[in-house]
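Is this the right way to post structure tokens for a design question? Let me know if I should format differently. Anyway, here goes:
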């Protein structure tokens, strides 16, 4: 009999991102990031206070993952919750990260107590979720992500998958709007775990 499947985003759901990225920008580039909105590329400023050109953002992000991925720590409750779920569910981490970082991310998550398969993705997540459903043929599935557009993509292509909107980082909770295409928003793993268990056992 097939097992339930959990497809989870990584940054902001399993691992802290905002504060490690802010520290990297300051330490390595002398840049600041003020979390006034969730448009990260538009909020990075140089020493003079001028906004950094958006076309510099991809290289800054790539540099962070190249050298500072180990500075990311699990969000509260993520490791224990996934460990409990992994006893009876399959777990895949679907993260919008460059392909050449996926291997390092797999090793880093395993080091932190989350030894799950990692899939690097580009753009909307509906299509890769659909592919995973075809591969696993799960009895039920839950998709977890912090960005509303990914829930819209999932609703369009795999509407039967339960969509959980989670913004696990306190610094970002007030900046990311609710996802109208998600079934629920729960920002804390302590509350998310029983919710997921209810959905998958329902």
């Amino acid at each position: 009999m097939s097992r339930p499947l959990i497809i989870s985003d990584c940054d902001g759901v399993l691992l802290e991102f905002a504060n490690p990225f802010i520290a990297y920008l300051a330490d390595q580039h002398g840049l600041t990031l003020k979390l006034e909105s969730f448009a990260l590329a538009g909020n990075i400023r140089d020493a003079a206070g001028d906004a950094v050109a958006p076309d510099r953002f991809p290289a800054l992000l790539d540099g962070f993952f190249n050298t500072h991925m180990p500075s990311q720590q699990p969000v509260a409750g993520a490791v224990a919750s996934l460990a409990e779920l992994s006893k009876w569910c399959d777990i895949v981490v679907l993260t919008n990260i460059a392909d050449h970082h996926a291997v390092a991310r797999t090793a880093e998550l395993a080091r932190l107590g989350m030894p799950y398969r990692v899939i690097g993705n580009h753009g909307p997540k509906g299509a890769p979720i659909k592919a995973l459903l075809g591969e696993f043929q799960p009895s039920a599935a839950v998709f977890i992500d912090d960005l509303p557009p990914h829930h819209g993509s999932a609703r369009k292509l795999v509407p039967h998958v339960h969509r959980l909107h989670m913004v696990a980082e306190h610094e970002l909770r007030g900046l990311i709007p609710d996802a109208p295409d998600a079934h629920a928003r729960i920002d804390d793993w302590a509350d998310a775990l029983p919710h997921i268990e209810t959905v998958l056992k329902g």
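Format looks fine. Someone answered above. Worth noting: The two ends are 16 Å apart (CA to CA). The mean pLDDT is 93.
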